[in-house]
Amino acid sequence: xxxTTLTDLKLRFDVTEVGDVVHEARRELARAxxxxxxxxxxxxxxxxxxxxxxxxxxxxxxSSRTLCHVSFFPKEHEIVTSLAGMLSPKISANYSLLSMxxxxxxxxxxxxxxxxxxxxxxxxxxxxxxxxxxxTKVKYCAAALELVHSNPGLVExxxxxxxxxxxEAASRIKESxxxxxxxDDFMRLAGVVRYGVTCHSRDDGLLL
Length: 208
Description:
By secondary structure, this protein is of the alpha/beta class. It contains eight helices and four strands; from the N terminus they run E-H-E-H-E-H-E-H-H-H-H-H. It has helices spanning about 20-35, 50-65, 80-85, 110-135, 140-150, 150-160, 165-180, 185-190; strands at about 10-15, 40-45, 70-75, 100. The protein has a four-stranded parallel beta sheet with strand order 1-2-3-4, with no helix packed on it. Helix 1 packs parallel to helix 2 and helix 2 packs across helix 3 (about 80-85). The longest helix is centred in the middle third of the chain and has 24 residues, at about 110-135. It is elongated, with a radius of gyration of 22 Å.
């Protein structure tokens, strides 16, 4: 599928000078990322020493509904630990992040455990949702689709499992979401009814 949307972005800051202009440039980039709806994969490297910039990046990761894969390798290793601490309090509300990499020695603390658990959960949800899309119509797969239907990784997983192209995968996801809005499907998947919903007439002509 032809597209001009930027989906992969690499940022490397090799500027050694410390000054307001440099910091502001990095902060503006972080702010731009927070409203970008196209980038799926982000790689950050080089100098990233200011914690306020890392805080903006953390806010972006927490709120983004499209950013799935992140690599963070700043020259200042300790900023990775700071980023993890900023992420951990709210990261559970993120259903888009599917992978995150950084310096190994800084990925073993309690904060990183929380981040990795969210990533593990999101990957499992995407897999379950994809199985719903390709035909496994069970309640826990339907629930997963509701949570991660906007995750770009779902399109990739459906492509992988169904051996279809991106357009077809997106179309199948859309149709699956539509089917969930149908009363019969919803009631059956929720376990309220076994086969479907049927309305019966009462003696006064009203429907039960």
